[in-house]
Each structure stands twice: as C-alpha cells, then as structure tokens.
Design a protein that fits this description.
6-stranded mixed sheet; 193 residues; Rossmann fold
C-alpha cells in the first residue's frame, strides 16, 4: 500500500501520467492529503482504522451494515462531470456511466481542503455526495476514478480514460504534440514544425 502511495507521489511531482482506478484513486487521495495538505497519518480507514485523517472512508450508509457482502457499491453508476474538466473533455460529455466494485469512498468532509489546493473533484454522483473522479489541475494527466472503466473497455473500443492515458504517456515518452496523436489511425502523423 505504501509503495502505491509513493508511486502516485512520484507521478504527481514528476509530471508522469497516472491513471488511478478504484484503490488507485484512493491511493492518489492519500498521497495528496499527506504531501500537499500536510495531513500526517492520512489514510483509508480500510487500512488504518485509527487514522487521524480518514480521507477514504466507508460511506455513512454502510457504517451500520455488518453483512460485508451487502455493502459493496456494485454495478453501473452515473457520474456528472465538471464542465471544462479533463475528464469531461476525455469522455466528450458531462454525464457518464461506469461500473463499480468497492466499499470505501472519498471522504467528502475533506473535499473543500483538496479543492483549495488544486485537486479537482471532477466527477460526482448525481446527488453530489460521492466523488467519482479526481484530477490534478495543471498536471498533464493525474486522474483517478472510483470506477472500473476496464469492465467496459474492449481492444477495438478502448475506454476513453485508457486511450487518453496512453496518449499522455506517448507525449511524455516521446515529447510529441498531443494534438497530433490519433490512437485510432494506423498512419504516421504529419510533422509540424
């Protein structure tokens, strides 16, 4: 777990594209809380029930549920994306449906502190209570989602987050202009000087 937090921190500070899925997004939130917000001991209550800053926590509705099998958020859920956000641009729309399989969520009590420091909660449940997507303002690609977009991704129709992540990785690796990369085309791209 701590290695994952360190990897997210490296990607964040070095401008390396990073796509966090489910636990991956939670790890990114933990890194940001500790390193940017200075919340010593920030963690998920799943891994540290005594954390002074449970930035990832059980949803309130699940606290009293003892049958763990019944507490999981499972299946397709709608998210509303922030207009002008990276994820809205990636999906090309502001309402998306992705599949889920998890119990722990971004703790919305901390949301204002994250957003003040540049971590945008760029997608939420329609009622605004659950954070579904995060992204780091000013970073080429540091995006996390509670969802599992891989469930809907196919070799011939990659999920938008994956094709955008690969494009960002190509830009980083090759110093290419992102506007010249067309992942659907098999022809070499024209060179503009």
């Amino acid at each position: 777990m701590e290695g994952k937090v360190a990897a997210a921190a490296y990607a964040r500070t070095e401008g390396v594209p990073c796509l966090g899925l489910c636990l991956g997004m939670q790890v990114m939130v933990i890194d940001f809380a500790r390193d940017v917000l200075g919340m010593v001991g920030a963690n998920s209550s799943e891994f540290d029930p005594q954390s002074p800053h449970p930035v990832i926590d059980l949803m309130e509705a699940q606290r009293d549920v003892t049958d763990m099998g019944g507490t999981m958020r499972l299946g397709a859920y709608i998210a509303e994306l922030t207009p002008g956000s990276q994820v809205a641009a990636i999906y090309g729309r502001e309402v998306v449906s992705e599949r889920h399989r998890h119990r722990y969520e971004f703790n919305s009590r901390y949301r204002a502190r994250f957003e003040e420091e540049g971590l945008m909660c760029s997608g939420t449940s329609p009622d605004g209570r659950l954070v579904e997507f995060i992204e780091l303002t000013g970073h080429p690609f540091w995006i996390g989602t509670q969802a599992h977009p891989e469930f809907k991704s196919r070799p011939d129709r990659p999920a938008p987050l994956f094709s955008s992540f690969v494009a960002a990785a190509l830009v980083r690796a090759e110093g290419r202009n992102p506007h010249l990369i067309d992942l659907d085309a098999n022809q070499p791209q024209p060179h503009h000087h």
